[in-house]
Amino acid sequence: MKKSNQTPLRAMLRLYADGLTAAQLSRATGLDIDGINRSLKCMPDAYIDRWSADGRRRYYSAVWCVVVPPANCPKPNQKETP
User: For 27, which DSSP code?
Assistant: First the structure.
C-alpha cells in the first residue's frame, strides 16, 4: 500500500499561513508534484486561497492553504446560576 502524502503536506501548509503553491510544496518536501496535486484535491481541509501569476511564463499557480481547526469550546461551569 502506498503511503499518503496528506500528512506532510498538511503539516507544511500549517507552517505557512499565507499558503504555498504545489511547486513550493514539492521543493520543501521532496515529493513529486503530480502526487502533491492529487493529494491536495483529496484533502477536505485544503483549499485554493488565490492564484499567483508567474511573470516569466504567463501562467497562474494555485496557492493552497489548509483550515486550522479551532480549539474545543470549554464546558460550562455547572455551579453558575442564571
Answer: H
